[in-house]
Amino acid sequence: MQDREHSSSADQRIMPLIAETAVSGTAYSFDMLFSYAVPEKLAAKTACGCRVLVPFGKGNTRRIGVVMKLSDGDAKGLKSLVSLVDEEPVISAELLRLAFYLRENTFCTYFDAVKTMLPPAMSVSAKETFRIVKNFTDIASLSPGAAELLQTLSCAADSKELNRLAEEHIIDNGRRLTDELCDAGALESDNVFRQNVGDAAVRMVRLTDRYITSPESFDLTPKQKQAADFLGEYGTAAVRETAYMCGITDSVIKRLCTNGAAEEYEAEVLRRVEDLSDEKRSPEDLVLSEEQQSARDTVLAQLRGKKPAVFLLHGVTGSGKTSVFEKLIDDTVKMGRQAMLLIPEIGLTPQTLRRFRSLFGERVAVIHSGLSLGQRLDEYKRIKRGDADIVIGTRSAVFAPLGNIGLIIIDEEGERSYKSDSSPRYHTHDIAKQRCAYHNASLLLASATPSIESYYLAERGAYRLIEMKERYGNAPLPEVSIIDMNLEREAGNRTEFSRKLAEEISANLKKGEQSILLLNRRGYHTIISCCDCYQPVYCPNCSVPLTYHKKNNKLMCHYCGYVSEPVDTCPSCGSKHLKNMGFGTQKLEEELSTFFPTARILRMDADTTFSRYSYEKSFTEFREGKYDIMIGTQMIGKGLDFPNVTLVGVLSVDKALYAGDFRSYERTFSLITQVVGRGGRGERSGRAVLQTFIPEHYVMNLAAAQDYKGFYNEEIAIRRAMIFPPLCDMCIFCFSGNEDISARLGAEAVLRLMNEKLRELQPKTPVRVLGPVRCSYGRINGKYRYRIIMKCKNNAEMRGFIRGVLTDAAKLKEMKSIALYADINGDVGV
Ligand code: ADP
Ligand code: ZN
Ligand code: ZN
Fold first, then answer.
1. pLDDT of 51-62, one tens digit each?
2. Does some domain include residue 548?
3. pTM, whole model, 2 decimals?
C-alpha cells in the first residue's frame, strides 16, 4: 500500500538515466545528492527509496546509498551505480519526502535522514568478491598493469586468497585496474550484502547450570570471577550492563561464555502475543465517562472530515486519557485507517502494550530500542506488509512505515525524550505533524502537564485544546502536605524522612496499602567529596563527578563508563578527609528498613545506561501487592497506574529546580504533579507528602495543588520577559574538541563568522547570539565542549543561515579538529 506511488510511477517511467543518491559516510559540510548513471541492466528495477551500492570518491570505494530522486538527463561523465541492494524500495515516497524535511530542519546529512527511517537491523554493509573468468584469453588487450594484476590473482591458492589479494590491491591502488579487468571480462565481481547485527545492549548473559551447581570446577580469572559473582547475584543482565557494573570489557564475558560458565542469549523483551493476551477485551465493552466521550467526539469529528489537525488533550492525572486513546484507535481502524500511539519510555511499554494487545491482538506492532534487532525487523515487516495497523512505540516509531495513517497520539507529550539528541536531532511532534499533514490525519498530543510550547500553541489557536478536568469515577485528587525540611533539621531530625512522612508510611503499612517514594535523579547519586577543598572526585575524562556504587564498591562515570577503585586521598589537594555526599536510593532503602524492618521494599534504580528488562517484572510484582513500598527516581514518576497506591512521598527534588536549563521549572513541576497523581487512583483516596527546603516556592505550591494553568501563567510570563521558547526559537551550536583551548578558539572563530554573515544577511526577524560559553558539562568522554546560543525565529531564512554557518565553519582553520553541530530547541543544560 505504502509503495503505491512507486509502482504507478514505475509503470509510466521513461528509462531513468540518473539516480540522485544519498550516500553514507559523508560529512555535513559537503553533503549533497550525488548523481549516478543508472546502467541499463539495473534500469528496470531502480526506484526511489532503493538502497544501492555506489563508487565514491577518488578511489571509487564502494558505499551504500539510497536513491532519493530519479531524473533523465545527460549521464555523460557520471559514475554508474554498481548494484541494487533492494529489489523493491524500502522507503516509501512519503518517508522520502520526510527525509528532505529532516535534512532541511535538523541539519543532518541525507543519508542520516533516510537511515533513521529504517530499523537498525536493516543497515547493511557490502562485501565484494571476485572470480577469475576461466576462458578469458585476450590478455593482449590489457594494459601492462592489469595483465600483471591478473597474473598475481591467478596464482592465488583459493578464492579466499584471491579476494584478500584483490582487496589489498584496491586499498593500496584504488579500483582502476580491477575495474579494467572486470570491463575486459577477465574478472567478475559480485557484492554480498550483510546485515549488521549484534548489539551488546540487547545481548543478555546468565550463568550456566553447570557453573551454578559446581562453580569450583571452573578456573576463572579474577575479572571473570567478578562477572560471575555479579551474575550470581542478579541472575541475568545485559552484556553491556554486566561489563559496566564490573568494570570489565565485553571480551571478558565472551571468554566466560566460551569457558561454559555463562551463556549469552537474545533478550526476550516482549513476550509474544499468546503470553500477553491472557485477558481479552472488546472495545465495545469500554464505556466512557461524559468528559471522555466529549473528548473522543471532538477528535472523531475531525477524523471523519479527513482534514489534518492538531489537538492538545490536557487531562488531569487519572482522568482516563488512555481510555480515550483506546476508543479513538478503535474508531480509526474501523474506518480502515491506521493509528500510532507514541509513549516516552520503554519502561512503560509493557503495561501499555498489554492493554492494547488485549483489545486489538495481533494488529498491534511495537517498536522501541529495547527490542532485539530481529524483533524490530519482524515488527517493521509486519507493519510494511499491512499485517499490523496499530503501532505503539517510543520516539523512533514515529517513522513506522504505515501507509494510511488516520491518527497519531503522543502520550505525555511534554517529555523531553521526544526530542532526539543525536543526529538527526528532530522533535517527534514535528515529524508527526508532517505525517498527519500528508495523510490528512489527526495528531493528538496528551498530558496532565503539557509542555509550555504546546500549551502556548493551544492558547493561540494553532492547536485545539481539549480539557478533562475530573478524575475518572470522580476520585478526588490526593491531599498534599508540603513539609518544610528546615524545620525538621531545627527539630533535630537528621534523617531523610520528615516526621509526617514517617507517620504516613507507618499508617499505610498497618492498613496494608502501598506507598511510592520518589527521589530526584540529581540528588540520587552518591559522590565522593573532599572536606578540605570541597572538590568532588571527578571523572578524568569528563567534568562530571564520579558516582560511588556500593554494589561493586567502585567509582563510576555515567557518561563515559570510566571505572576506578574507591580513592582515599583527594585528587585535587591530597587531603585524606573524604566523605560520601548525596543520598542514593540504596541509602534510602537502608534507612527505610531500619525504620520499618518488616516493610517489603522494591528499589527501582536502574540507570539510563542499563537495560530495563527487569522493569516489567518488578512493576507487575508491585502491582500484585508483593511489596509495600517502591522507591525510585523519575522513571517511577510517570504514566504508571497502580490502583493500590495511596501514599506518595517526594524527597529532595529541590535541586532539580536549579538544573541550569530554562526548562528546569517546567520539568520539576511536571515531575511532582505526575508523581503526586500516581496516588489514589483506585477506590481509596490518596495522600502525598512533599518534602522541600523551599516550601514557599510557587512551583512546589502549584504542583501540590495540581494547578497546571496557574503554573503555565507564571512560566509563560518568565519566558516572555527573558525571551525563551516558545516566544522565540533557540538554536544551539555545540563545539567539541580534544583540547580546551582549540575548542574555545574554534567557537570564537565561528562566532565571528556568524556575526559577519548576519551583517550581510540583515535578517528579517530579530536574532540574538550569546556565547560562546563552556557547556554545563564542559568535558564529556575526553572532549571539551563549548556552545553558542542563537535566539531567532525558526524560518527558512534562518535555517539557510544555520546551514551556511555549518558549511563555512568546516572551512575555518580554527575548526580543523573541532566537531560542530546545530540543534534547534534542544536541551541547553547539557
Ligand atoms: P491518566 O492516564 O489520564 O492519568 P488512566 O488512563 O491511567 O489516567 O486512568 C485512570 C484510572 O481510571 C485507571 O485505573 C483506568 O483503568 C480507570 N478508567 C479510566 N477511564 C475508564 C473507563 N472509561 N472505564 C473504566 N475505567 C476507567
Ligand atoms: Zn581536596
Ligand atoms: Zn567520564
1. 999 999 887 888
2. no
3. 0.82
